[in-house]
Amino acid sequence: MIKRLLLGFVALLVLAVIGLFALAWRRTIDPIAPPQANSFATDLVSRGEMLAGAGYCASCHTARADQPYAGGYAMATPFGTLYSSNITPDPDTGIGRWSEAAFVRAMRKGVARDGSHLFPAFPYQHFNLVTDEDLHALYAFLMTRAPVKAATPAPDIPFPLNVRALQAGWKLLFFRDRAFAPDGSKGAEWDRGAYLAEGLSHCSACHSPRNQLGAEKMGDQRYAGAVVDHWYAPALTAANPAPLAWTTAEIETYLRQGGTALHGVAAGSMSQVIHQGLSRLPDSDIHAIAVYVADRMGGDAKRTGNDAALAQAMTRAGVPVNADIDPGAHLYAAACASCHYNRGPMPAAVRPELGLNSALTSPDPSTLIQVILHGMGTDEGLPGLAMPAYAHALNDQEIAQLAAWLRRTQTDEPPWTDLPSKVSALRTPDGGASGQH
C-alpha cells in the first residue's frame, strides 16, 4: 500500500513538472543578421530616444557610464540579485540578432528571444501597454546604439527560484496581458498621462508596495508608497502626507525642474528619473503626466487648504532654534540652519523648507537619512545646488537625534521608531545613495 502511494505521488510529481514545463514553453524566435543603423529613419530613432528616456532604459541597463545600455546593473531583490541585460545591438552578448518581433514579445510578454521567461524585475507588465508604433521607434533607437560586447552576469538567485519556467506560474497569478485603453471621460491630456505613467514610465512599480511573491499590490494598496533600493517612494494617492497638496502645477514643475519651493527637491532614484529620463520628454507630455498623477492624488481638489498649511509650516520654521535644548536642535543649528532657514510667507526653492518635504513627512525615514548621510550632488535635485554629506561628521545617534527633532518640531506626523538602527543600516555601502528607480 505504501509503495503504491509512493509511486502515485512520484507519478503526480512527474506530471506536475511536465505540466509546468508545457505551460512555460515558448518557441525560440529565429535570429537575424544585425540590421544596419542607417536602415532606420532619423526621426524614428529620435522618437525612440525620447521613449527610452520615458522608460528610464539607461538607468536600469547601464552599469558603466562608458558603456550605455550594456547591462550588468545589479538589482537587489528579496529573492537574490539580478543583473540587467545588454540591450545594445552586439550580436553575441546583446540584442543584435533579435528581430523586432522578438523585441516586442520581450516587452509585452516577458519572454526572451530564446523562449526563456524574464524575471518580473523587468516591468513587462507595464510595457505591454505600449503601442506598436512606440515599440517600433524604441527598437529603432536601441538597434542604432553602439554595440558593446558585455555578457550579462548570471542572477544570484537560489534554486528553485532561479528556474525561469516557474515564471509562467507567476504570470498566471499576476500578469494581465492587455493593451492600453483610454478612459475617454477625463480628456486627452489625462489619457496621455495615464498612457505614459502606467506604460513606459511604470510609476507604480516604485510607488506601490509588493506582496511576498514580488508582485505589485493592487486595489487601495496600489500607489500607496514603498521602499525601493533603500529610498522611500511616497504614496501617489490622497494618502500622501505632504502638508501642501500636490497640484498639477506643482507636479509639473517638480518633474521638469527636479524640485519646487513648496515640496522640496527630488533625491536618489527619483532624481535619476527626472534628470536622466523625463528630461527627454516634451513639455506637453510632462504636463500630461502631471494631470494624471494630480488626479490620482486629488491634488487640485485639495489645494484650498494650501494657504493655511503653508502659513503653519513657515511659522514653525521661524521659531528660534537656539532656545531649544534638544540635541537635535543644536545639530540643526550647527549643520543645517544656514542653508535651510526661510523667513517670510514663502520658502525659497534654493533653500528647501524641510517641514514641507516628503522626506520628512513620509512614514519611512529612509530618504531623509540617505540625504543627510550621503548628501546631494549638483546634478541631483535642482541642478547646480548641492548638499554636503554628513556620514563622516555625524555618528548614527546624532543623525537619529536630528531626524527625530525635525520630525517632532516641523510636522504633525507620529515619531519614527528605531532611528539609530535605521541610520546604521543605511550607512553601509549596500544602503548607500546609488539607487535605481
From TrEMBL:
Does the UniProt entry include the keyword Repeat? Answer: yes
Cytochrome c domain span = 43-146, 188-297, 323-410
What InterPro entries does this protein's entry cite? Cyt_c-like_dom (IPR009056), Cyt_c-like_dom_sf (IPR036909), Cytochrome_c-type_DH (IPR051459), Membr-bd_ADH_cyt_c (IPR014353)
Q: Name the segments for region: Disordered.
A: 412-437
Q: Which Gene3D superfamilies match?
A: Cytochrome c-like domain
Keyword field: Cell membrane, Heme, Iron, Membrane, Metal-binding, Repeat, Signal
Where in or outside the cell? Cell membrane
Identify the PANTHER family for this entry: ALCOHOL DEHYDROGENASE CYTOCHROME C SUBUNIT, BLL4482 PROTEIN-RELATED
Q: Give the protein's recorded name.
A: C-type cytochrome
